[in-house]
Amino acid sequence: MRFLNTIKIALRALRRSALRSVLTALGIIIGIAAVIAVVSIGNGAKSQVEGQIASLGQNIITVFPGNFTSGGVRGGWGTASSLTVEDTIAIRNEINGIAAISPEMRDRSQIMANGLNWNTQILGEDVSYLDIRTWPMTDGEMFSEADVVAGAKVAVVGSTVVKQLFADSDPIGQMIRVRNIPFKVVGVLGSKGFNFFGQDQDDVMIIPYTSHLRRLARRPNLNNIVIQAQSPDVIEQVQRDVTDLLQQRRQGREPDFTVRSQQELAEAATATARTMTFLLTVIAIISLIVGGIGIMNIMLVSVTERTREIGIRLAVGAHGRDVLMQFLIEAIILSLMGGGLGVLAGIGASQIISNLNGWPVLLSTLWIFIALGVSTVIGIAFGFFPAWKAAQLDPIDALRYE
User: Fold this and answer.
1) What pLDDT score was predicted for residue 157?
2) Beta-carbon neighbour count of residue 348 at 10 Å?
3) How confident is the model at residue 76, as a pLDDT?
4) 232 pLDDT exceeds 80?
5) Residues 211, 28: contact at Cβ < 8 Å?
């Protein structure tokens, strides 16, 4: 009962100076709002990147061409072109823990069909590519292993290509010409949207990698090798084994390849976002500290203004701990009020930013409780000294105070 009375007294004291109470809590409101908004936007961005990474497939390892040195000529990452189909076969046959593997050729070219033309990405892949990418078909079927062996002129196309070239007709069975070479459309891919690089994944035409090597690129080297590990647990081991095998095949020459896992690509994609989130969170914490100092300052002023009231309470039998509890509760209520309003402001701000910029937002219930907990801690930490000072007042001196 005494505790409830103390809360009522604290609320009555705060109501007497309502505007000052709100202004005092403003620092907490701004700090908590900033934390909630930053975390919500950061979580949304992280979730979006993770979704886009997942759209590339599960447990993916990619072998990229590296740098090269030849005589006095040197080139950076991606300039070497020494990955071969034989490398792919060796990896498939000698490395354990691999679920699927596809040699990959990449190119952009103008394609034509139905009197229309479109510039798109042309991929040369193996039949397992769609399984690696977990990419469903909406019509037709993937080309076969026999098509790969024969270097057949067949293709599956993305939904963007269908819209641009076959908007009013069924693309299955129709011909697309690439550099005056006809390819028969045998399948249409399901829509995947944009990836984390900002590329339209549906703007693509996939043909057998053998057809790409023989008919379009006319060279023996691959752009990439895409590998799917059997489970997340073996990704690191497969990555090490692939690196060792390729290095052995180069007989001690300087590595001209780079092996990267899906996790490493995701970390690289989110590194900047994490840095910005960290910096903004630090700024928000500084705002919370400033808000806490504001609470301490106003509570010290309140103690000075209510010195006679404190003296009367002590004179009629109140204990020092009762006075300490009263002022401490006032500080905690101020902080919690700021925390609650800050949470609402943060949710509102994150939604407004999301609507204005099209950024994803993912609200974290955990961070709401953390914010309210931080508010309580700030109230206790910055309200204790003024409350302790009030409790230490001498009743006689307090009653004499003008």
Assistant:
1) 96
2) 13
3) 47
4) yes
5) no
pLDDT tier for residue 268 given thresholds of 50, 70 and 90: low
Q: Residue 44 is encoded by which pair of tokens? A: 């949304």
Digit-coded pLDDT (tens) for 377-402? 877 777 777 777 766 766 665 555 55
Q: How far is CA 206 from CA 59, 118, 153, 178, 212, in A?
A: 21, 15, 11, 12, 9
Beta-bridged to residue 41, according to DSSP, are none
Alpha helices in 71-128 (DSSP H): 85-94
DSSP 198: S
CA 2/CA 268 separation, integer angstroms:
57
Q: Count CB neighbours of 370 within 10 A.
A: 15
pLDDT of residue 310: 66
Sign of CA dihedral 101, 103, 107, 111: negative
Do 191 and 202 contact (CB within 8 A), yes or no? yes
Structure tokens at 156: 């599956």
CB atoms closer than 10 angstroms to residue 317: 7
pTM of the shown model: 0.62
Rounded Cα distance, 38 and 33, in Å = 8
User: Under a CB-based contact definition with an 8 Å cutoff, are residues 332 and 380 in contact?
Assistant: yes
φ/ψ of residue 29, rounded to 5: -60, -50
Q: Are 306 and 300 in contact (CB under 8 A)?
A: no
Helices (H), 112-204: 129-132, 145-150, 159-165
Instruction: List the structure tokens of 53.
Output: 């990474």
210 Cβ contact list (under 8 Å, min separation 6): 124, 148, 149, 150, 151
Q: Which two tokens stand for residue 58?
A: 């599960």
Determine the pLDDT at residue 75. 45
Name the band, by pLDDT with cuts 50, 70 and 90, for residue 68.
very low
Q: Number of helices (H) and strands (E), helices first, in the chain?
A: 13, 12
* pLDDT, position 5: 66
